[in-house]
Design brief:
There is one protein chain. The chain has about 240 residues and is α/β, with parallel strands linked by helices. It has one domain: Rossmann fold (3-Layer(aba) Sandwich), CATH 3.40.50.300. Helix content is about 40%, strand content about 25%. It is built from ten helices and ten strands. A six-stranded mixed β-sheet has the order 6-7-8-3-9-10, with helices on both faces. A four-stranded antiparallel β-sheet has the order 2-1-4-5, covered by helices on one side.
Length: about 240
Amino acid sequence: MSDIVLALKDVETYYGKIHALRGINIEVKKGQIVTLLGSNGAGKSTTLKTISNLVQASSGTVEFFGKDITNVQPYDIVEMGLIHVPEGRRIFRDLTVEENLELGSYTLKDDKERKNRMDHVFEMFPILEERKKQDGGTLSGGEQQMLAIGRAMMVKPKLLLLDEPSMGLAPIIVQDIMKIIRRLNSEGTTILLVEQNAKMALKLAHYGYVLETGSIAMEGDGSQLREDETIIKAYLGS
């Protein structure tokens, strides 16, 4: 059986007349953290939205465990275990922490399993347990990001798409988020990470792709990309 969880094959995506993705090919293998790097407007978020079918690919295929999901409805993609934590967190601000987490497990019929998963989220994010009766909108940015990841964990994702998890957070909170991503991966979650903080992303990633204006300009092992002069100059500083 193949260890390829996700494969994008010659994927083209348009926003109106804007050619956002230009024939990209990406693979994510089981148990890996794969990162997408690139400047603003390079097509990173569009790639994740195309995988989730929030934006329709105009050609090419998206395969999840070998199954073509290019035209599968986003809610069916969630049921398959492919979970997208979007940029900007998108929690339900008027619902409590606990209610946000419960909504994350809407595909689950087993109440005992739901409780087990929530306990696991609270063990990973003790601050969320302290705040479980608070509305999501009253949390700090870092706590909201933890809630967004916790809500995704309630589905027990086979593949987790993370879009800019460190955006707008204080450096000390970024370190916490980084540890959480590493731990999730060590517990068996495969992750595709879009991250503006290239230094952080390449410390975490087994493999990386660099996007430039909708095309893949470079790819390689995380450690290899970390040493690459072009990457250092463009994204990591000298």
